[in-house]
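User: Please check token order:
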Amino acid sequence: MIVTLGLAVAAMLYFVLRSWSLRTAAYERAYTAIRVGDSRDAVVAAMGEPQAVTDCSYNPFSDKKLEAEFRSKCFQQYEYVQLMARYTISFDGNGTVINKSTAVSP
């Protein structure tokens, strides 16, 4: 009984980890393929619907000039989160990609 239960748990963990690994790899491939100048539709086709849509209000910059330039262009951001990785795609008012960034939490 214990062996059967252990095998069932191990099999479940295998499939969960494999699924997570495949989704992460798919996000990485799609994120790499997205280029500045791509349309919002191209991003959704590659990455799927975003988990969050924000208004560019939080973007930490160490260079205030770059921050001001970014804020003047950025209209909307799509956020995709996969476990500890966050992929952010920034758009201008016309729906064109102006920036993309990724962060991984430790």
